Amino acid sequence: MVARLGLSVVVVLALLAARGTFPSDEALRARFLTHRVDFERLVAMANEDNRLTRIAPDFTWLDDNVAWPRKDVGISEGRWNDYRKIFRRVGASEGILKGTNPTRIIFPIMSQGLVPAGAAKGLVYSQASLSPALQSLDETPPDKLFDGPDRSHVLVYKPIDDHWYIYYEQW
User: Fold this and answer.
1) How many distinct structural domains can be found in the chain?
2) For the segment 18-71, what is each residue's pLDDT rounded down to a tens digit?
3) Would you say residue 17 lies in a domain?
4) Would you say residue 10 lies in a domain?
5) Is 68 domain-assigned?
6) In this structure, what DSSP letter does residue 128 have?
């Protein structure tokens, strides 16, 4: 019994430590302010490349084809290299995703785990207001905001400037 309790405590502490490895809201805000022009350029590029729903340094998703590898990556090699350069500069090693309902450009700055158990924190651009909005994403969101059949999913935002947010998602 003591061994099980000890193991449980270790697991809980490991999960708390893992949650603490995400960049702070202030660190993400500072990154955004330092690289704002580059983030805005990525938004403009992503909007121009409207066939793409995911642009990563090593793969893309098209609006009608997410298979990889494939010959048609949706953009020229030169354009893809432009994305890669800016991703490196802003520290967006996972690239970008385009979300819908509402339309948004998502910059996962750090993620951990895999579906069905993981989390991500980063920046989002959206012309529409995003909610629920919290004052801080440095702590785990309130239980009442989790949804899904097993209440394991949450997606929350913190506004940092016009149309710009920090996001935290857990699944």
Assistant:
1) 1
2) 445 899 999 999 999 999 999 999 999 999 999 999 999 999 999 999 999 999
3) no
4) no
5) yes
6) S
